Amino acid sequence: MSIESSPLRGATLLADEPSRFGRESSGAVYEMDPLQDPRWAALVERHPRSSAFHTVPWLEALRRTYGYSPVVYTTSPPGTILRNGVVFCRVRSWITGRRLVSLPFSDHCEPLIDSARDMEAILNALRASRESGKWSYVELRPVTPDLFSSEATDLWLSNRYYLHTIDMGPSEGELFRRFHKGSIQRRIQRAERAGVTYECGRSDALLKKFYQMQMLTRRRHGMPPQPAKWFTNLRDCMGEALEIHVASYQGRSVAAVITLRHKNVAMYKYGGSDQAFHSLGSMPFVLWKAIQNAQATGARSFDLGRSDFRNHGGMVFKDHWASRQSRLTYWRFSSASQAAAFGERPAFRLAQNFFGLLPNSMLRLTGELMYRHIG
Prior knowledge:
It is a single chain. This protein is an alpha+beta fold. It folds into 2 domains: 11-154, Aminopeptidase (3-Layer(aba) Sandwich), CATH 3.40.630; 164-327, Gcn5-related N-acetyltransferase (GNAT) (Aminopeptidase, 3-Layer(aba) Sandwich), CATH 3.40.630. Helices cover 38% and strands 25% of the residues. It is built from 13 helices and 13 strands. It has a 13-stranded mixed β-sheet with strand order 1-2-3-4-5-6-13-7-12-11-10-9-8, sandwiched between helices. Strand 11, helix 9 (282-296) and strand 12 form a beta-alpha-beta unit. Helix 2 (56-66) packs antiparallel against helix 8 (228-238) and helix 6 (181-194) crosses helix 9. The longest helix is centred in the middle third of the chain and has 17 residues, at 204-220. The two termini are 24 Å apart.
């Protein structure tokens, strides 16, 4: 689906404010609407560090589902070529407060900035916006390790993850041989021998099968699923950049994943499975099919997504795909008390126990009510 946009004049946020690092900033900082100003899509298309999360379709799906309004901070004046930008969503919640997040429900979102001076100017603007009381916090999720330093920029560490990526350069056969023999190779072969079948597409039927698997998995993890309309909106907005992959056994769906594509990078974003059929190797099977599809269509890298540093099992599973592991750190302009809460999750564990007891209808309703407040 194409999303029409038209030029929108930027608004100056900060003009030539002295830097906290002892130098003058590179100039004014502006905000722009990436859904209306076509310069943003053009920057995303040409910038080497952009991802599916930067794209207009992803931002539009967030807006349609959760009502978040996206905004880009840039040092490029209105009416000029957009040289840089950091994209956020404005999240306003009567439960969790007003926040500026780059970006909600996105594993990472690299600032598309190549100049240290431009980065500094934008960080100063973000700091000023937070200190004015407009936002309870401002969060950034860069891919580049140590892009920010808490000592240098007054940013607090918000959360830590690991990002896993597969190099798609080797041949399909060589790629398969690099996978862990017991955990990946043999389970894929077991699924093939058992007659597990595979479908790929974007149809309503496949989306329904995926959501059934998502429901089972989220219940197993003690969490409600994201609203069904999120996945429908994401499918409709992303168009051919999104694919649904489903594995079935004897006519019954047993595992499913959703992948996204941006230029030559494919991304595993969502997955789910029926635990009753895990012995068949259905999840490694369907993920391998998605990887094969991505490689056949020219992907040079496969992003397996993030894993929480506390989740040893998740890290090991992704490591078994011969993936490269890198640090993924989230940063915030926030109060010290908010930063101190990092890593403390007793309330989350209690919530997991509660959610696991809800019937499916209540679990879905909880997800519909909850997620817009936690983006």
